[in-house]
Amino acid sequence: MATQRLALLIFLTIVSFPFDHGEIIPSKSQGVRAAYWPSFTGYPASAIDTSYFSHVYYAFVLPSPTTYTLEITPDDVENLLDFTNATSRWNPSAKTVLSVGGGGGGTLPGIFSQMASDHYSRATFINSTIEVARDYKFDGIDLDWEFPSNDTDMTNLGLLFREWREAIEYEANVTGRPRLILTSAVYYASNVSLNGGPRSYPIEAITEYVDWINPMCFGYHGSWENFTGLHSALYDPNTNLSTDFGIGSWIRAGMPPNKIVMGLPLYGPTWSLADPNVNTVGAQTIGTGPGSGLLVYSDVINFNEENNSTVVFDNNMVSYYSYSGDSWVSYDDVRSIELKVRYAQNRSLGGYFFWALGQDLDWTISSAASEAWLN
Ligand SMILES: *[C@@H]1O[C@H](CO)[C@@H](O)[C@H](O)[C@H]1NC(C)=O
Ligand SMILES: *[C@@H]1O[C@H](CO)[C@@H](O)[C@H](O)[C@H]1NC(C)=O
Ligand SMILES: *[C@@H]1O[C@H](CO)[C@@H](O)[C@H](O)[C@H]1NC(C)=O
Ligand SMILES: *[C@@H]1O[C@H](CO)[C@@H](O)[C@H](O)[C@H]1NC(C)=O
Ligand SMILES: *[C@@H]1O[C@H](CO)[C@@H](O)[C@H](O)[C@H]1NC(C)=O
Ligand SMILES: *[C@@H]1O[C@H](CO)[C@@H](O)[C@H](O)[C@H]1NC(C)=O
Ligand SMILES: *[C@@H]1O[C@H](CO)[C@@H](O)[C@H](O)[C@H]1NC(C)=O
Ligand SMILES: *[C@@H]1O[C@H](CO)[C@@H](O)[C@H](O)[C@H]1NC(C)=O
Ligand SMILES: *[C@@H]1O[C@H](CO)[C@@H](O)[C@H](O)[C@H]1NC(C)=O
Ligand SMILES: *[C@@H]1O[C@H](CO)[C@@H](O)[C@H](O)[C@H]1NC(C)=O
């Protein structure tokens, strides 16, 4: 998921599964209030204040490039045990989801593509995810494939979800346990045209077999561009790079709104301005700004304070930026987060998630979002 670069309804009668009543999908009033825990940053799982979250995602574990079973390295074992140990002590308890995959490109999209292309490798992968999830006491599994690269991948993704759901239903029947939750982090919009031709997510399969999706509604702009931009704008009248467009595209494509959990960033991209006096959205830039192009929320606030930054709330795009000298940062703060949560509720979405835990400043944003949803 998110580093700097991220990056038709035939309404099917949803098959009624035995555990769907109340346990798996939170009530509308509670919502999915989720966050990913990057296991690789050193931020301890025991530090997570779960009063702000209904679900915490473990990020990430990876499939073997040759066998497609999950490859649990010694570091993974340590992090998984840290997580499980913390989980058992969380008060209040939050549901836990094991996320498989992640961003960063490389060979991972190709490995998922290969895995999903064949019935036997899908089954091997699926069985392994269930086994690891149960071994470490998770309540669910999440797929973060960034991104299926053509129509074939998208079709195979639909098959994967169908077989995955069947397998977790079967496992729950056999063991008598509540079935595992199945979710997926997806592109901010229902069609992807990044790195390849346009392709559409398999909406019918997702609707039928996945409990909810997590569209990554951030990373619209970054220092790979030579102009400033709001990387998680709620609205953008000039382009399709906005959360309103992305969420709208999923709904127009037939995704039930209550199965959409909207992404919110706890980080922001930074640029160096070409001219410190030209500092609006769209201003020309000459490279990365502080933090080598990325600051987490707590660092943005520290940067703003120490450098007397000018802070601007963009009322039309519903996001923030700040600048000081030639440094320019795009981020979200309390007000934009609250408005985005209101937006999610207004569109009857299932909830929201953050990328990522460990980036907030004293739970400022996490608590504002949770309070906005619950009140
Ligand atoms: C589990 O967490 C507690 C409290 O954070 C800590 O004292 C203990 O050492 C941990 N145990 C393991 C096995 O990591
Ligand atoms: C996956 O698990 C199912 C159910 O236990 C089993 O029938 C099947 O043979 C397994 N498939 C593979 C490829 O491991
Ligand atoms: C789709 O993309 C995958 C992964 O990049 C590739 O292996 C496969 O050949 C592509 N299929 C088609 C039909 O283009
Ligand atoms: C699980 O059990 C239910 C209820 O007995 C049954 O309808 C369903 O077909 C079973 N599903 C699987 C995948 O075994
Ligand atoms: C910005 O980048 C675009 C595309 O990479 C390029 O065409 C344009 O000349 C650049 N503008 C400036 C002012 O560097
Ligand atoms: C935005 O998306 C719509 C629908 O896919 C498309 O018709 C339109 O051309 C896109 N606009 C821009 C500016 O890319
Ligand atoms: C997505 O792609 C499908 C199929 O190509 C097309 O029918 C639909 O209009 C596109 N949706 C958006 C929002 O661009
Ligand atoms: C203030 O700005 C300077 C120059 O960009 C930077 O080195 C410093 O880290 C900033 N202060 C904070 C707290 O980020
Ligand atoms: C920020 O403003 C304070 C008070 O006006 C001043 O003392 C300080 O030097 C300024 N810091 C910077 C980095 O400009
Ligand atoms: C909710 O949606 C309606 C219709 O789209 C809009 O008029 C209203 O301003 C929205 N309210 C909020 C709080 O976003």
CATH superfamily of the largest domain: Glycosidases
Q: For the residues shown, what is the average pLDDT?
A: 94
Q: What is the succession of H and E elements?
A: EEEHEHHEHEEEHEHEEEEHEEEHEH
Count, helices: 9
Overall tally of domains: 2
Give the ligands present.
2-acetamido-2-deoxy-beta-D-glucopyranose
CATH T-level fold name of the largest domain: TIM Barrel
Any key phrases for this structure?
single chain; 375 residues; alpha/beta; TIM Barrel; Chitinase A, domain 3; 9-stranded mixed β-sheet; 6-stranded antiparallel β-sheet; binds 2-acetamido-2-deoxy-beta-D-glucopyranose
What's a concise summary of this model?
The chain has 375 residues and is of the alpha/beta class. It has helices at 74-89, 108-116, 119-135, 151-175, 203-209, 243-252, 297-306, 334-346, 364-374, and strands at residues 32-38, 55-63, 70-71, 95-102, 140-145, 181-186, 191-192, 199-200, 212-215, 261-265, 267-273, 285-288, 294-296, 310-314, 319-324, 327-331, 351-355.
